[in-house]
Design brief:
- The chain has about 350 residues and is α/β, with parallel strands linked by helices.
- The strands form four sheets. The protein has a seven-stranded mixed sheet.
- The termini are far apart.
Length: about 350
């Protein structure tokens, strides 16, 4: 095919990033956006020159001739738009996490296979240069076998209290550990067999948001490796970065140390102090750069060239199963066996 006809369902912060990425791919025709907030959908459509806006994704799927739809709705609201998309015979690219229920994730894959279409999860950090390099070095054998990893991905309290109106419908496990659990699984190249997790409830609970302040999880892999994942939602809002993201990987022949919190630039003015994120997504000299764009372009190219992307259809449910097990572990205060 010459071009992919694409639409985006959910045009919040991450949905707009999908829009930006699609608009910079020469073989994409971004024909529509959909959001229950019509004012937001209209603003995004006008900003990026998109012809059609919808409040109802079912109406959009019925009217538009589409090849691919991005679903960037809140974490807990992926199932219905994904099922409607695949029932229409259209491929879906889903923002992480695939779902907040393992059974929902399995339903998506089963429906897609039945209709002969694809559903992939946008694990964009696989395209984040430090992690992509780490994967490459382990795959090449330079660092030996991965033995241990520590990944800390946390947000300031701004995220659950101001940025997200639906924070109580998800938690740091689904919202943040979906990234780190996928990276650990991908780099270790092994399935998780056992999970033990711990959580603390206090600060957010006192604000009426019934989610953990932080979660720490230990993943044990079938190949003998272990990874510790740590995520918090209560870092001070005064920090220069909303996101704190560091990682360490230890192999039998070497180690990798990663920090993506400070991405080589720090900006201080009389009004603010911040760490911009040029690795993520940024316009530089009128050109969009960053791994968020690269990830989405990778999926577009895979569809156009009829090849499998580096994320397969089973990766989404596998990730959700790990996340669900982490939640189950801290709720039931016990080890959860996955295999």
């Amino acid at each position: 095919m010459d071009k992919l006809r694409v639409a985006v369902i959910g045009v919040g912060i991450q949905g707009e990033n999908h829009v930006k990425a699609y608009k910079t791919h020469p073989r994409v025709d971004l024909v529509a956006v959909c959001d229950i907030n019509e004012e937001r959908a209209r603003a995004v459509a006008e900003k990026y020159g998109i012809g059609s806006i919808y409040r109802d994704y079912r109406e959009m799927l019925g009217k538009e001739d589409l090849d691919l739809v991005s679903i960037a709705t809140p974490d807990h609201l992926h199932l219905n738009p994904v099922l409607a998309t695949v029932e229409s015979g259209v491929n879906a690219l889903i923002e992480k996490p695939m779902a907040t229920s393992y059974q929902d994730a399995l339903k998506m894959v089963k429906a897609a296979k039945k209709k002969g279409v694809k559903v992939y999860v946008n694990f964009a950090n696989r395209f984040n240069p430090p992690f992509a390099i780490t994967k490459k070095r382990f795959t090449a054998g330079e660092l030996g076998k991965p033995l241990y990893a520590y990944l800390r991905l946390s947000d300031t309290i701004y995220v659950p209290t101001k940025m997200l109106s639906w924070a109580s419908k998800t938690n740091v496990v689904f919202f943040l550990m979906s990234h780190t659990a996928d990276l650990a699984t991908w780099i270790f190249n092994s399935n998780v067999r056992r999970v033990r997790a711990f959580a603390h409830f206090e600060v957010l609970e006192s604000l009426g948001i019934e989610v953990p302040d932080y979660v720490v999880a230990v993943l044990e892999f079938e190949n003998g490796g272990r990874a510790v994942l740590e995520s918090s939602w209560i870092l001070p809002e005064t920090l220069p970065s909303v996101v704190d993201f560091v990682a360490e990987f230890l192999g039998t022949k070497g180690a990798v140390y990663i920090s993506t919190t400070r991405q080589t630039i720090e900006v201080a003015s009389v009004e603010s102090h911040e760490y911009p994120k040029p690795l993520n997504i940024e316009e530089v000299n009128n050109r969009l750069i960053g791994f968020v764009k690269e990830s989405i372009h990778h999926f577009v190219d895979a569809f156009l060239e009829k090849r499998e992307p580096i994320v397969n259809m089973e990766d989404g449910p596998r990730n959700v199963r790990i996340l669900e097990s982490i939640v189950k572990s801290f709720k039931e205060d016990r080890v959860i066996e996955l295999s």
